[in-house]
C-alpha cells in the first residue's frame, strides 16, 4: 500500500532546531576536554550526523542499537540492546543522541544501563519529543521540537523500516 505523507517539519525547520540545540550543547560543554556522543541506532543516524557537525571541541562518537518497535506504530515495551557500545564510558562525559522520545522506555533502559558504567556525566539530546505519550519519566536536557501524539516518519524515523531517509519529518495519514 502506498502511504500518504503530510509534512510536519520541513528541512529548513530541522536545521533551525539543530542550530539551537547545538548552541546550548556547545555552551554547556565549554571547557570539557572531550565529549562522547552516543547515537542510538538506527533512528538517530540523521540527527547524529547533522548535530555533531555543529559541535565544537573534542568530540568522539560511539553507537548502540536499542530496538522496541517492530513492524507497527506501537512500542512492544520490551526494549532490547541489540548492539552495545564499542568502548568503556567510565569517567567520560556522555551525551546520548536520539531521534525521538515517545513512551520513554528506550531511553529509560539505555540511561539506566549506562549509569551503571560510571560516566563523568550523562545527558540526553532528542530531536523530537512527544511528551503526551510518556510512560516512563526520563530527563531530556536538549530537545529540538516538541510534537503532538502523531506517528511520524522521516529524518531517521521509520514505519516498518521505510522513510528513514526523508530529509523532513512527516505524518502518515493512512497507516
Ligand atoms: O520512547 P520510546 O517509546 O521507547 O520510543 C522511542 C524509540 O523508538 C524508536 O526506535 P525503535 O525501537 O523503533 O528502533 P529504531 O531506532 O531502529 O527505529 C525511536 O528511534 C526511539 O529509539
Ligand atoms: O512516531 C514515531 N515514528 C517512528 N518511530 C517511532 N518510535 C517511537 N515513536 C515513533
Ligand atoms: Mg530508535
TrEMBL record:
<dbReference type="GO" id="GO:0000287">
    <property type="term" value="F:magnesium ion binding"/>
</dbReference>
<comment type="similarity">
    <text>Belongs to the purine/pyrimidine phosphoribosyltransferase family.</text>
</comment>
<dbReference type="InterPro" id="IPR050408">
    <property type="entry name" value="HGPRT"/>
</dbReference>
<comment type="pathway">
    <text>Purine metabolism; IMP biosynthesis via salvage pathway; IMP from hypoxanthine: step 1/1.</text>
</comment>
<dbReference type="GO" id="GO:0032264">
    <property type="term" value="P:IMP salvage"/>
</dbReference>
<comment type="function">
    <text>Purine salvage pathway enzyme which catalyzes the transfer of the ribosyl-5-phosphate group from 5-phospho-alpha-D-ribose 1-diphosphate (PRPP) to the N9 position of hypoxanthine to yield IMP (inosine 5'-monophosphate). To a lesser extent, can also act on guanine leading to GMP, but shows a highly less efficient activity with xanthine.</text>
</comment>
<keyword id="KW-0328">Glycosyltransferase</keyword>
<dbReference type="GO" id="GO:0032263">
    <property type="term" value="P:GMP salvage"/>
</dbReference>
<keyword id="KW-0808">Transferase</keyword>
<dbReference type="GO" id="GO:0005829">
    <property type="term" value="C:cytosol"/>
</dbReference>
<dbReference type="InterPro" id="IPR029057">
    <property type="entry name" value="PRTase-like"/>
</dbReference>
<dbReference type="GO" id="GO:0046100">
    <property type="term" value="P:hypoxanthine metabolic process"/>
</dbReference>
<protein>
    <recommendedName>
        <fullName>Hypoxanthine phosphoribosyltransferase</fullName>
        <ecNumber>2.4.2.8</ecNumber>
    </recommendedName>
</protein>
<dbReference type="GO" id="GO:0000166">
    <property type="term" value="F:nucleotide binding"/>
</dbReference>
<keyword id="KW-0547">Nucleotide-binding</keyword>
<keyword id="KW-0479">Metal-binding</keyword>
<feature type="domain" description="Phosphoribosyltransferase">
    <location>
        <begin position="13"/>
        <end position="159"/>
    </location>
</feature>
<keyword id="KW-0660">Purine salvage</keyword>
<dbReference type="GO" id="GO:0004422">
    <property type="term" value="F:hypoxanthine phosphoribosyltransferase activity"/>
</dbReference>
<dbReference type="GO" id="GO:0006178">
    <property type="term" value="P:guanine salvage"/>
</dbReference>
<dbReference type="GO" id="GO:0052657">
    <property type="term" value="F:guanine phosphoribosyltransferase activity"/>
</dbReference>
<dbReference type="InterPro" id="IPR005904">
    <property type="entry name" value="Hxn_phspho_trans"/>
</dbReference>
<dbReference type="GO" id="GO:0006166">
    <property type="term" value="P:purine ribonucleoside salvage"/>
</dbReference>
<keyword id="KW-0460">Magnesium</keyword>
<dbReference type="InterPro" id="IPR000836">
    <property type="entry name" value="PRTase_dom"/>
</dbReference>
<dbReference type="Pfam" id="PF00156">
    <property type="entry name" value="Pribosyltran"/>
</dbReference>
<keyword id="KW-0963">Cytoplasm</keyword>
